[in-house]
Amino acid sequence: MSPIHTIDQLEDELSRPTQGVLDTLRALDGDVMVLGAGGKMGPTLARMARGGLDEIGHKQRRVIAVSRFSSASAALSLQRHGVETMACDLTDRAAVAALPEVPNVIFMAGQKFGTDEAPELTWVMNTLLPAIVAERFAKARIVVFSTGCVYPLVSADGPGSREDDVLGPPGEYANSCVGRERVFTHFAKQHGTRALMFRLCYAIDLRYGVLCDVAQKVAQGLPVDVTMGAANVIWQGDANARAIQCLAHAASPPLALNVTGIERVSIRWLGQRFGELLKREPIITGKESKTAWLWDAARSYELLGPPSVSLEEMIVATAEWQRQGGAKLGKPTHFETTDGRF
């Protein structure tokens, strides 16, 4: 990974197409639509798809980013990189019906934080909205962004959750995500739609994510809670690339895929490592629980190969971003949560 000192450099790095992306886009036909493209990952994913199509000489194929786009600057930024934007409330059936027909859809819409205050809205966003989209794009390939939190917590000493494990997570948010998967699966079976449940856990860039959360606490002299004793992480650029590649693996009935790093990262060790890099003594609090949200990503490695950015590269880049006072999104991951309440 090249040195990263500015937001523009970071977003360029997160948007750079991999060889796997180029091969996938070359093998598939048609335009690509990213639904819910206004979040943390959507803009760089859409840019990666656009850049990949340009690189293989398919400039005529469209990449369409769909979101409410409450910020005009977000839409303009995407347009500057050749991505078409369409403002749309995805809970509005008529508005969704008016979207253009496309053969390739990446679905990223959903709600996590604020579930405790308004659980009914979380269920609308994570189950009703998917029903509207699944009906509208029944003929498309759909990569459905889900979460590793659809599984129950597992033994911290065990292998991690696998795709065939029974779903049964704690908390309303995670259960609504099970609902999202069930809704897409229902319509996929009804219409023969090819879909893939993209169980992502946890993507990071330098402005947010598990590594950012821990590095920031170490830098500020705040306690690092190790009750959730370990996690898996993946560079957001690699997660973007895997999402695009997964269009080629959509199936009916849908395939499920854990998307994360293969390494299990100890939060205690991570605090200590950031202490070394930031020259601050970490404050470690709590005791590792016997259970955690952990995932076995072997299937995604078999299908898609290893990620391009290593754990150590992510850690070093995060520490350097922290040292230079790089911008943060102000959206903590809350990976420490053990009861599923967000």
Report on this structure:
The chain is of the alpha/beta class and 342 residues long. It has a domain at 7-203 and 235-262 and 295-307: Rossmann fold (3-Layer(aba) Sandwich). It has 12 helices and 15 strands. Strands 3-2-1-4-5-7-12 form a 7-stranded parallel beta sheet, with helices on both faces. It has a two-stranded antiparallel sheet with strand order 6-15. Strand 1, helix 3 and strand 2 form a beta-alpha-beta unit. Helix 2 (19-27) packs across helix 3 (42-55), helix 3 crosses helix 9 (236-245) and helix 8 (210-220) crosses helix 10 (267-278). The longest helix has 20 residues, at 172-191. It is globular, with a radius of gyration of 19 Å. The model has no long low-confidence stretch (mean pLDDT 94).
Secondary structure: helix percent:
40-55%
> Helix/strand-derived class?
alpha/beta
| Total beta strand runs | 15
Strand order, sheet with most strands: 3-2-1-4-5-7-12
Mean pLDDT: 94
Strand content: 15-25%
H/E element string? HHEHEHEHEHEEHEEHEEEHEEHEEHH
- CATH architecture classification of the domain at 7-203 and 235-262 and 295-307: 3-Layer(aba) Sandwich
Give the low-confidence spans.
none
Could you describe the largest sheet, including whether it forms a barrel? 7 strands, parallel
Using the alpha-carbon principal axes, give the shape: globular
Distance between the termini: 33 Å
Number of helices: 12
CATH superfamily of the domain at 7-203 and 235-262 and 295-307: NAD(P)-binding Rossmann-like Domain
CATH class of the domain at 7-203 and 235-262 and 295-307: Alpha Beta
Could you please say which CATH topology of the domain at 7-203 and 235-262 and 295-307 applies here? Rossmann fold
Q: Rg from C-alpha positions?
A: 19 Å
